[in-house]
Specification:
heterodimer; A: 272 residues; alpha+beta; Beta-Lactamase; rod-shaped; B: 179 residues; 6 helices
Amino acid sequence: MFATLAGKALVPVGLAVTGFMVVCCLVLYSVIRDDLHRAEIVHATNIADTILKSTRYAMHKSDRETLATIIRNVGEQRGVDHVRIFNKKGIVNFSAKSGEINRQMDKNAEGCIVCHKGTLPVTNLGTMQQARTFRSPEGMEVIAITAPIYNGPDCSSAACHIHPPGQKVLGTLDIGLSRAERDRSLTMLRIQMITFTLMSLILTIGGVTALLRRNVFLPVQKLRNYVESTENISDIPEPPPHLTHDLDIIATSYYKVKMNAADKKNNFEKSV
Amino acid sequence: MADMHEKQLSADNSETVDSTDLLREGLEKEINRLSRFSTRGIIALALFLVVSILAWRGFPFLPDPDTVSPLLGKPPSAGIISTVLLLYTFSAILLSLSRMTAGIEHRSSFSHVGFLTAFFLFYYFGKSLEGNYWAVFGSGITILGVESYRIWSFCAEGISKNREDIEYVTRTGRPPPQE
């Protein structure tokens, strides 16, 4: 296959075009996936900020019932895996899942260790560092954001509160969002890219094959048949018409050589 | 006088035989060299596969990117590395196809393995190897595949030409006509 004229023409073209397209698709896929991941984090951070702002007044008033209702309602939203608020000791105070309330969180767990790996916990993290991804017990891909609830003058100076002004972080809001929609989009993108690459490959190989067949293989075959059929005869017919330019020259030269040889042979036979 | 003429003829004959043998020996050596050279692309491809396996395992013998970053500085972003990878792939394929067209013998396969390893390392130290592994792998397979084909077809043509030349030398006792 590789040694034939068709193989020599098609293998490098097919390999180069397909390979380059595959690399382009992979790079594009990677860039789109990273962009989607960043957008997901920004979206989750915005939701976390919205929840914190919505619950701030209830926290000031120490209205635990309103706070619990807000958290429960947000948790019931489609695509929300979990919402919980835990205090500085890591005990869950509010959660959309009632079974989690009063449960102690492990500081070494994924998502907690980012801030708690040193002796003193980190109090300021960038948006991207606050995010973590994991698979839920139900087998669903989840992206979670842990947003610290910072102390403020309005918190430490409120009459009903006991937070000292020196305490920087009062607790943490943890929200997890399902990645099912993002996975579905990426799967669709993958299928589209594979289809696009296969179609381009078929078009490239098909186009090159058609052009080669029309302009090279058929004229070469015609020339070969002409040469083979006139190999052992002296009175040869005219070369076949409609050959491509270079092959036409070869056929005409062959015809002239054969005619000259036939003339010389005739002259020799006459002289003898 | 006749003896001298015979001696002269036999000396000429032996010289011709010697030069024919030398010529044939040279052509056989060239065939052997081309046979060895034709495997160069496949060896480079195999070496790249070894590097790819190491990259797939996350270069277990290399230090953690976090420990290296303070020494080397901030790595380039994955987007920049990917752009350079695309440009490199495009130029390497173009170069290889140009060499194939011109029939140039060029030993570039192993340098490509080096460049591709550098891309793996850049992604590794930029902590984005996992997301971009297949792009480098695809690029490597494409470039080294085209290069292997170029080297193989160049050598196959050379070997076939040299075999024809040996046949010509054996038949005529004269050096083959130059193209």
